[in-house]
């Protein structure tokens, strides 16, 4: 796929004087191939402008950057105000504005993006539609799975996948990092769905107001006839819905406690499975699902409303919701032979943890054991609150390691010990797999064990037992394998 440099510069309002053939766009000098356009970004770890020479050595035909260079390069250098924003526009143009050939659904919010995207993807597929799904767990394009490295891929990979996709619908998770870094940009979504907002990523956004304002920008990415779908079961959602109305951005709310929507929740039960009674424009329907938890009531109704907006009937949506088997690592249950239960969940925010533990408690007749840790080099301001929630809702807490992301193990363990100090029911165990095996040995009939933080993800640290993830550790232990 080739484009001329002049063609690509048009949407940036720049008139080039040399027409050069561009064979691809790259953010990373190490990936440059002959004839590529290198976009130099000033990043959080390093500065892409430092790699301009190596990009040229590797074959870059032109460079875009935002800094004034002192020297003259052997290839054209085009200076823009914001390289990331320019990249987004360039990638979109290079791949022929591929969002126009799909119905695009973007899902944002602190918690529930993955679950809602799986729900919607499933509803669409169940009703004979083709749909791509892009998010934290994986990217699925034309029915084929690809490894996901970022919840929202960078602008180049995103546009390339949208171009390759022959799917009628694209359901994608949109992270706040993705919005802030212009991985998504411009009118590209037919539907933008906001799940909720709570304490997370303050290492990046500094405060909740900035985080909120970033999330809100997804609604500027709606196509002309696009619309928003906003979860109003939290105060940030209520505010967002009001502000969108003031700004004349069409949006529908869901999950409001007062049931003011044309499709609203009348009542619900959260365990042993989610059962929801809804009112859809004056008609009552019951949805009996196979997943658990109050949070999934909201995820289900959000996806129900989006599917109804798309044009599916209540029956089509309900049948699909009732057949939904759940999301890997999101409140996954393993029944232990002695009648205890283990739950694996991806909760890594205070609000997510609250929902996950509440659900685990409701599913547990006797003692609830909670095993979790914290990611290194991520928002550490949420840790104390999460420990408080854990010791409040569980009977016994085992703090252990999660991904260190380069942080020193001893430093994390010291922090865990400090966090556990005020509480009697918290133990720190260095090794995640040992903590799981130990708690499994304590479980009696009616007890529950919930492990949070990693969900279905594979371990990134070396642990004593050579298993790949929390589920495998549990399964190997209860099946009596030597692990
Ligand atoms: C903090 C953050 O978001 N960083 C993202 C950012 O990287 P950066 O600005 O730090 O890049 P950098 O390392 O400083 O390098 C600057 C530039 O130099 C280039 N470079 C670097 C070295 C070299 O030899 N040659 C070269 O050209 C790099 O390719 C880059 O373009 O831009 C990169 C390109 O798009 C992203 O890959 C990278 O995501 C990192 C890997 C990351 O972990 N991000 C996480 C926090 C993230 O985005 N998470 C959200 C989900 C959050 C959630 O809801 O849980 C996500 O969407 O995944
Ligand atoms: N609607 C919700 N409200 C609050 N918590 C939720 C909600 N949905 C899911 N959770 C909790 O958050 C965890 C992560 O859910 P999910 O993966 O769907 O969210 P996410 O927004 O995609 O998170 P991430 O971007 O980090 O992958 C779940 O395991 C559950 O504990």
Automatic annotation (TrEMBL):
GO biological process: cell division; cell wall organization; peptidoglycan biosynthetic process; regulation of cell shape
EC numbers: 6.3.2.-
Pathway participation: Cell wall biogenesis; peptidoglycan biosynthesis
Matching SUPFAM superfamilies: MurD-like peptide ligases, catalytic domain, MurD-like peptide ligases, peptide-binding domain, MurE/MurF N-terminal domain
A Pfam family this chain is assigned to: Mur_ligase
GO MF annotations, alphabetized: ATP binding; magnesium ion binding; tetrahydrofolylpolyglutamate synthase activity
Gene3D superfamilies according to UniProt: Mur ligase, C-terminal domain, Mur-like, catalytic domain, MurE/MurF, N-terminal domain
Domain of life per record: Bacteria
Mur ligase N-terminal catalytic domain sequence ranges: 22-95
Necessary cofactors: Mg(2+)
Post-translational modification note: Carboxylation is probably crucial for Mg(2+) binding and, consequently, for the gamma-phosphate positioning of ATP.
GO cellular component terms attached to this protein's record: cytoplasm
Sorted UniProt keywords: ATP-binding, Cell cycle, Cell division, Cell shape, Cell wall biogenesis/degradation, Cytoplasm, Ligase, Magnesium, Nucleotide-binding, Peptidoglycan synthesis
Record-listed ATP binding positions: 109-115
InterPro entries: Folylpolyglutamate_synth_CS, Mur-like_cat_sf, Mur_ligase_C, Mur_ligase_C_dom_sf, Mur_ligase_cen, Mur_ligase_N, MurE/MurF_N, UDP-N-AcMur-Glu-dNH2Pim_ligase
Record carries keyword Cytoplasm: yes
Primary residence: cytoplasm
Residue list for modification N6-carboxylysine: 215
Family: Belongs to the MurCDEF family. MurE subfamily.
Protein name: UDP-N-acetylmuramyl-tripeptide synthetase
Source species: Halalkalibacter alkaliphilus
């Amino acid at each position: 796929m080739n484009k001329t440099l002049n063609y690509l510069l048009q949407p940036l309002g720049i008139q080039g004087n040399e027409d050069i053939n561009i064979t691809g766009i790259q953010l990373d000098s190490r990936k440059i191939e002959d004839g590529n356009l290198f976009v130099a970004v000033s990043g959080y770890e390093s500065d892409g402008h430092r790699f301009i020479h190596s990009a040229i050595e590797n074959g870059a035909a032109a460079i875009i950057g935002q800094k004034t260079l002192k020297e003259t390069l052997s290839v054209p250098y085009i200076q823009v105000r914001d390289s990331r924003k320019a990249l987004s526009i360039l990638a979109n143009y290079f791949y022929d504005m591929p969002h126009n050939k799909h119905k695009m659904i973007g899902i944002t919010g602190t918690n529930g993006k993955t679950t809602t995207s799986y729900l919607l993807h499933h509803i669409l597929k169940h009703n004979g539609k083709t749909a791509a799904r892009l998010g934290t767990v994986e990217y699925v394009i034309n029915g084929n799975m690809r490894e996901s490295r970022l919840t929202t891929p960078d602008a180049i990979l995103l546009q390339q996948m949208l171009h390759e996709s022959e799917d009628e619908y694209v359901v994608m998770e949109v992270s706040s990092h993705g919005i802030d870094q212009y991985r998504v940009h411009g009118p590209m979504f037919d539907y933008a769905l906001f799940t909720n907002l709570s304490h997370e990523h303050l290492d990046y956004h500094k405060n909740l107001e900035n985080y909120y304002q970033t999330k809100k920008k997804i609604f500027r990415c709606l196509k002309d006839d696009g619309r928003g779908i906003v979860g109003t079961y939290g105060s940030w959602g209520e505010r967002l819905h009001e502000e969108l109305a003031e700004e004349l951005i069409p949006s529908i709310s869901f999950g409001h406690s007062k049931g003011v929507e044309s499709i609203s929740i009348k009542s619900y039960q959260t365990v042993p499975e989610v059962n929801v009674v809804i009112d859809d424009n004056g008609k009552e329907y019951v949805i009996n699902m196979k997943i658990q938890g109050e949070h999934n009531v909201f995820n289900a109704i959000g996806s129900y409303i989006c599917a109804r907006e798309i044009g599916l009937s209540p029956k089509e949506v309900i049948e699909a919701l009732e057949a939904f088997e759940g999301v890997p690592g999101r409140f996954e249950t393993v029944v232990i032979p002695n009648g205890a239960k283990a739950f694996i969940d991806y909760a890594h925010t205070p609000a997510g943890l609250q929902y996950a533990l509440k659900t685990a408690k409701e599913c547990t007749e006797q003692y609830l054991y909670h095993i979790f840790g914290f990611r290194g080099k991520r928002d550490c301001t949420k840790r104390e609150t999460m420990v408080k929630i854990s010791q409040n809702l569980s009977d016994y807490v085992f703090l252990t390691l999660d991904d260190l992301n380069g942080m020193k193990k001893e430093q994390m363990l010291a922090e865990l010990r400090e966090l556990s100090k005020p509480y009697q029911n918290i133990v720190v165990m260095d090794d995640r797999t040992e903590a799981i095996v130990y708690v499994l040995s304590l479980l009696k009939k009616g007890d529950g064990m919930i492990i949070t933080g990693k969900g279905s993800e594979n371990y990134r640290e070396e642990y004593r037992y050579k298993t790949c993830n929390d589920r495998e550790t549990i399964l190997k232990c209860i099946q009596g394998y030597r692990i």
